[in-house]
């Protein structure tokens, strides 16, 4: 039986009505990308747009993450289509985060020998943010595949739709190389690196077996509006299947278990708000 926190309140094809606006905005950005792809060839203009969109497209990674935890639509075809557009923005294809993150990191984040997003070196020392960023980004696909070998039903769509995505991107590059590189290829790479960069602060340095002491939290309203309440990170790890819109409620129910030192401003908050 679902709790009140978990109970879906869908609207038509959406499982939760709160997903309507995030999806609409992300699809609007996708339309803009394709309009520019077919109409603009100027290197300077496309470069300026690429730089302008680094943080917005990086923020989309949070919504792709939420989708991989709890699919947005009731219909599988719609979910696969949305994942294709997410991949063009974030560099993360269908089921990659479902394998690497949901079936990997969330089960192993208290064990730095197994964690797919581990922040600890083999000698037990803490990685710096740049080392962690490169390590997590470069190993994302191999580690996702490794987890997938234990979950073949999840691995199959990952392989199929990743192949489709990269073939489409290759066709886009073949047809119009410069727009494709600046509108799709580079943003995919940058967003994957951006994702790894901002996740460094989620757990780094917290070597503990207590789940309530293993995640940093950020309750800044703007940060959570942009990321779908990703700042309620302890709650997210406590019950990873809870929809992002219900995380503040879940956080309130466990807040007394979270030490004060685990509340901080995030890298992205400092970047966006200069807090």
Mass-distribution shape:
globular
Q: Using only CA atoms, what is the Rg?
A: 19 Å
Query: Which class of secondary structure composition applies to the elements?
Result: mainly alpha
Percent range of helical residues:
55-70%
Query: End-to-end span in angstroms?
Result: 41 Å
Question: Can you give the mean pLDDT?
Answer: 93
Binned strand content:
under 5%
**Number of alpha- plus pi-helical segments:** 12
Largest sheet: none
The run of helices and strands is: HHHHHHHHHHHH
Low-confidence stretches are 269-275
Number of strands: 0
Keywords: Membrane, Transmembrane, Transmembrane helix
Protein name: Fatty acid desaturase
Organism: Amphritea balenae
Question: Can you give me a brief rundown of this structure?
Answer:
The chain crosses the membrane at residues 21-40, 46-64, 158-175, 181-200. The protein is globular, with a radius of gyration of 19 Å.
Kindly describe this structure.
There is one protein chain. Helices cover 63% and strands 0% of the residues. It contains twelve helices and no strands. The chain is globular, with a radius of gyration of 19 Å. It has a domain at 17-207. It has 275 residues and is mainly α. Keywords: Membrane, Transmembrane, Transmembrane helix. Residues 50-262 form the Fatty acid desaturase domain. It holds the Pfam family FA_desaturase.
List the helices and strands and how they pair.
Blueprint: H1 20-39, H2 43-52, H3 54-69, H4 76-90, H5 96-108, H6 129-148, H7 152-175, H8 177-203, H9 221-227, H10 233-238, H11 247-254, H12 267-273
Helix pairs in contact: 1-4, 1-8, 2-8, 3-4, 3-5, 3-8, 4-8, 5-6, 6-8, 7-8
